[in-house]
Amino acid sequence: MKEKELSCVNGFFAVLVILALLGSGAYLISLELALPMIAGILACVIGFALLTGLTIVQPNQANVVTFFGRYLGVIRKSGFYLAVPFSTRKRVSLRVRNFNSAKLKVNDVNGNPIEIAAVVVFSVVDSAKALFEVDEYETFVEIQSETALRHVASKYPYDQPDGTGFSLRANTEEIAVELTAELQNRLSIAGVKVIESRLTHLAYSTEIASAMLQRQQAEAIIAAREKIVDGAVTMVQMAIERLQKDNVVDLDDERKAAMINNLLVAVVSDRSAQPVINTSTLY
User: Fold this and answer.
1) Are 63 and 89 in contact (CB under 8 A)?
2) Which InterPro entries does this chain map to (predicted)?
């Protein structure tokens, strides 16, 4: 079922017609003559029937009109109108709304339990689908949003230690785009347009949070040590090359090894190196 516009009469003009019908009907009834009384009663009945069709449409709101179970159309333009008498008019908000999901516990692609939540910004673009294709479209949006969030979260790891590939923590923009597309595919049946979706919470589950924190700390220490070792080796190479270039000292292999050992210990050590003064020869 698709949304279609319903043609309506201006409400203020309709009020004038209704008042005229009721006034003329009352006048004809007051004449107490057979034919005028019948005409007056008919005018009053028509006037009261037209009263049931008066409706007000607020800005960014749609009134879906049905007549004894038959869908007639929708009134989107705000104002005061006369619709079909005795029809049922249901209001559907077209305003942009937010849905904040609860914190969901999901297993990522590696099987690690994580906590994740998202905010979904959406609006109704087809009021007929929102009312007739699904039961309570707002609840439908909530359930499908959580389902899509679980599906997307289970496709990627929480983090990639080596920095390669997609991860939930490092690729939030790409994850948001995929989540929006997934939601739009699921919610199009309800006439809902997904404007944006973003992750609002992402963390390891409490039962493994401490272990993952230790792993991250260990990875940071290893990375820092690798950087320190690389720098220390470069400094030792530069020092030996400079000494040999300037002919400051002539070092054999054994003395080079001793110097390299001392320099590496001094640079790589966590604590400041304590100098040892040798008052004799090296041997």
Assistant:
1) yes
2) Band_7 (IPR001107), Band_7/SPFH_dom_sf (IPR036013)
pTM of the full predicted structure?
A: 0.68
Task: Provide the token pair at 115.
Answer: 């906590």
Q: Is residue 276 part of a domain?
A: no
Domain contains 214:
no
Q: How far is CA 146 from CA 21, 105, 137, 140, 170, in A?
A: 55, 11, 14, 10, 21
Determine, yes or no, domain membership for 2.
no
Cα–Cα distance, 134 to 155 (Å, whole number):
28
Q: At what angle do helices 137-153 and 172-187 cross, to 10 degrees?
A: 140
Strand order in the sheet with 9-10: 9-10, 79-82, 54-57
Q: Are 174 and 156 in contact (CB under 8 A)?
A: no
CA distances from 119 to 58, 166, 172, 200 (A): 27, 21, 13, 6
9-64 pLDDT tens trace: 898 999 999 999 999 988 888 887 788 888 989 999 999 999 999 999 999 999 99
Q: For the chain, what is the largest distance between any 2 Cα atoms, rounded to a whole number of angstroms?
A: 143
End-to-end alpha carbon distance in the chain: 97
